[in-house]
Each structure stands twice: as C-alpha cells, then as structure tokens.
Write a structure and sequence with these properties.
It is built from 9 helices and 2 strands, in the order αααβααααβαα. The protein is mainly alpha-helical. Strands 1-2 form a two-stranded antiparallel sheet.
C-alpha cells in the first residue's frame, strides 16, 4: 500500500513539473476554438463578408505558418511550449487588428469577437511566462510584434490569417491534430 501511494505521488509530481497534467485542459479549451475555426465559418465570415481582395495590415511575424514552427524548432532553446505561447500571443494580436477594422454592425464582428473570447479562455490555462525565460528567437519575434511602427507592414486577408491560426494550432497541440487526422482519413476512405 505504501509503495503504490508513493508511486502515485511521484507520478503526480512529475506530471505537474513536466506540464503533462495541463494537456487535457488545453484540449478541452481548444476544441470550441477549433469548432469556430471550421472552414465554412472562415469562408463565410472572413471571405464572403469582405470585399474581394480585402487585406489587413499586420507585422511580418504575425503571418505565423506551419513552416515558421518547423524552422523555429531548429533554434537552440525553442520548445513546443514556447511556440504554443507565441501562437497564442500572435493570434490574439491578429484578432485585435481584424476587430479594429470592422464596425460593430459588420456581420463578421461578433464571430471575430467570439474567437477572441475563446483565445482568452485558452490563455487562462497558460502559465504566465517571464520574459527572461523565453528563448532568444521567441523574444525577438515577440518584440517585433510589439513594435507599433515596424519597418514594413504585410497585407494579408483575414481568412488567410485564421487559416494559419488553425493549421499551426493543429501542429502545436497534438490532441487537436490527432482528431483532425482521424476525420481526414475517414473522409479519404469514403473515396
């Protein structure tokens, strides 16, 4: 009895110190966000409700793609957890920029506001990072995104920004990725 109790205690301490106990919390908070980012919503609210070729000015770093994640993982000290924090921060900033250009009566305004709220719920589960603990490359990207007067703005469609948000989320959070892969494999087997 004593040995099993100590094994349980050691397992709990390891899960807390390694962050394993928070994974299900992230998954449960990310699923509503994933549902709101489905293709038909992104198409309707972020493409059809906007003029043709409508773009939003964002920092270069705010166009955060899967290729950026793969490239950043090659840098010393960059971890999946630090990339998850960066993904959250970048997408909160992207949603703020989209909301800034939308009037409140725009048909997409409530959709984007709901996405911002869902990201806020996910953010509550992240431990507050200390800037001195961030890898150098992540800190550099963070400071570039914070710059109110960048050297150049990149103009991107709102739909493309949130397409990237979903794809990077699938890459960084395995519980979302596995669910989507299963769905895609069953869709392909129907052919």
């Amino acid at each position: 009895m004593d040995a099993s109790w100590s094994l349980l205690l050691v397992t709990a301490v390891l899960q807390i110190s390694l962050g394993l106990s928070t994974a299900p919390k992230f998954c449960s908070a990310l699923r509503p966000l994933e549902a709101h980012l489905n293709f038909s919503h992104r198409l309707q609210y972020l493409k059809h409700n906007f003029p043709i070729s409508y773009t939003v000015p964002v920092h270069y770093e705010e166009v955060f793609r899967v290729t950026n994640v793969t490239r950043l993982l090659l840098h010393k000290g960059v971890t999946e957890a630090s990339l998850q924090e960066l993904w959250l921060y970048i997408n909160k900033e992207v949603l703020k920029k989209i909301l800034q250009v939308l009037p409140q009566k725009h048909p997409s305004w409530s959709y984007v506001q709901q996405l911002e709220h869902l990201l806020g719920l996910v953010e509550q589960l992240f431990p507050q990072p200390k800037e001195d603990e961030w890898p150098e490359k992540i800190y550099q990207i963070y400071t570039n995104v914070m710059d109110p007067y960048p050297a150049a703005w990149k103009k991107v469609t709102p739909k493309a920004l949130l397409d990237n948000c979903l794809r990077v989320m699938e890459k960084l959070f395995p519980c979302i990725n596995r669910k989507r892969k299963r769905k895609q494999s069953t869709d392909l087997s129907a052919w």
